[in-house]
Structures are given as structure tokens and as C-alpha cells.
From TrEMBL:
It comes from the Bacteria. InterPro entries: HotDog_dom_sf. This is 4-hydroxybenzoyl-CoA thioesterase. Pfam families: 4HBT_2. It comes from Caballeronia glathei.
Length: 171
């Protein structure tokens, strides 16, 4: 199994920073989106191939975990690995690091769908050469520490459900 590999690098730009002085949440997703484009290039779905073969990838679902803040000017790298794939889909895991840091500042996982664009967008099997490159990026899922997380609040207890929306007990 392949380990995660660096597929993208960028710098946190001044226009990406919010009123708290750190990278605005929307720009984490922009960086991940650009990294996904780089991943597409890496597996052979670069611009020329997409145009020639009438193929592309759509993102069906994306989750972002914000692990610690990152500031303007920070150099970031995105490491990627494929957690799973089938004939038409890729479960891609991405981690964002300050360039030489050991711990990620953020993690994202995405479900990607291969699309045939020749007659209107429709799901399509990966061509054999692309499928082989995808398989080469499969990694040990134990390394994907932030994958598979579910968002939600814990179930409310009977005493908590008696609280009013303002957070105080009813009179």
C-alpha cells in the first residue's frame, strides 16, 4: 500500500484571512479543491486528457476538519491518499500541513465520481490506465486519523430535553 504523498503546495494569501487573523473556513476548501485538481493530474486526468476523453471528476461529498488555526503567509502542503475506490468512485483523504510540521492543521475527505461529459454528464467507469493509477495511491486507512468522522451532537438526556431553547429550565 502506498503512503500519502504530497500533491499540492500553496501560501495563505492576505485575502484568505478573516477577522480573527486566520485562514477563513471557505479557503480551506478552496485549497482542498485545488489539491483535488492536482490529484486528477497525478492520476492522468489532466486538462488535455479530460478534453480528449470527455471525462472529468465531480465531488459528491466533502468533509473538512479544522484542527488548528493557520495564519496569513503560512506555507502549506496537502498530502493525499486514496482510502477506497471502485469502478466509478474515489474516496480521497487529504491532510493540510504547515510545510514542515508533523501534525496536520486540517483534514478533508471527499467522495469523487468519474463523469462522462460527452452526452451530458453521467457516471462512467474509469479507463483502465486511470484505474491503475488510482490503485497506486491507495494507502493504509489507519493513517487517515480524521476520516469517517460524523458530525452531530450527542443524544440529549431526559433532563436536557426539559430545558427551553434559551438553555434554562421551564418555569
Amino acid at each position: 500500500m502506498a503512503a500519502a504523498s504530497t500533491i499540492y503546495r500553496d501560501t495563505v494569501k492576505p485575502e484568505w484571512v478573516d477577522y480573527n487573523g486566520h485562514l477563513r473556513d471557505a479557503f480551506y476548501m478552496l485549497i482542498y479543491s485545488l489539491a483535488t485538481d492536482a490529484f486528477m493530474d497525478r492520476i492522468g486526468l489532466d486538462d488535455a486528457t479530460r478534453r480528449t476523453r470527455h471525462r472529468t471528476i465531480y465531488t459528491l461529498e466533502a468533509h473538512v476538519n479544522f484542527l488548528r488555526e493557520i495564519k496569513e503567509g503560512a506555507q502549506v502542503r496537502i498530502d493525499a491518499q486514496v482510502l477506497a475506490h471502485d469502478a466509478k468512485r474515489i474516496h480521497l483523504y487529504l491532510e493540510m500541513f504547515e510545510v514542515d510540521a508533523g501534525e496536520p492543521v486540517s483534514a478533508s475527505e471527499q467522495m469523487l465520481l468519474h463523469i462522462d461529459t460527452s452526452g451530458g454528464p453521467k457516471a462512467a467507469r474509469f479507463d483502465e490506465d486511470i484505474a491503475e493509477r488510482i490503485a497506486a495511491h491507495c494507502g493504509d486507512t489507519r493513517e487517515a486519523r480524521y476520516a469517517g468522522r460524523v458530525i452531530g451532537l450527542p443524544a440529549r438526556s431526559a433532563s436536557a430535553s426539559a430545558l427551553s431553547p434559551a438553555g434554562s429550565a421551564p418555569a
